[in-house]
Amino acid sequence: MPSTNAIIFRSSDLTRRAEELLAMAERAEDTSPAWRRWGDDVTAAFREQFDSQGVRLTGDVWAPLSPRYAAWKARHFPGQPILRLTDVLFASMTHRPLGVDRVTDHSGEFGTNVRSRRGAPYPYYLQHGTRFMPARPLVRRTPDLVEAASAHLRRWIVRGAV
After folding, report:
1. For the stretch 132-160, what's the b/e string if a residue is b when 16 or more beta carbons lie within 10 angstroms of its beta carbon?
2. Do residues 49 and 138 lie in contact, with contact meaning Cβ atoms separated by under 8 Å?
3. Is the pLDDT of residue 111 over 60?
4. Percent helix, strand, coil in the chain (nearest 5)?
5. In the chain, % of residues over pLDDT 70
6. End-to-end alpha-carbon separation of the chain, Å?
7. 75: three-class secondary structure by DSSP
C-alpha cells in the first residue's frame, strides 16, 4: 500500500501525452482549416469596411467623391454608395470565394483581383490613391484580425477544432 504522501506516475500517462503531442504536430503540418475559418472573419471585415465607408479597417471614413463625379453617379447609379458603382468590387470582397481566396497548408490570402475595364489593377489605385483620386483603402491587417488568425490556429493545433 503506497504511503499517503506518494505520487504515483505510470508510463501510460506519458503515452497519452505523447499521443496528444503527436496529434498537435500533425495538425500543425496542415493548418488550412484554421485559415479557411479566418477567411470568413476577413470577409466579414471587408463587408463592414464597405458598410462603414472605410472606418472598419482604417479608422477613417473614405474621402467623399468629387462634386462632378458625385453628380454623374447620382444620375446614372442613384443610391449607390462610394465604391459600389456596379457592385463587382463589393461582391468580389464580400462573398466567398473572394476574388483572391487562397488557402495553403500554412497561410491564407484574401482580397480582390478586380480590374478596371481597361485592365488596370483598380483596387491598388483605391488603396493608395492617384494624383486624380484620393486613397480609399479597402484592406488592412488590423490587430483584431491578427488575433482572430492566432485564435483559429491555436484552436486547430491544440484541439483540432476551428
Report:
1. eeebbbbbeeeeebeebbeebbeebbeee
2. yes
3. yes
4. 50, 5, 45
5. 98
6. 46
7. helix
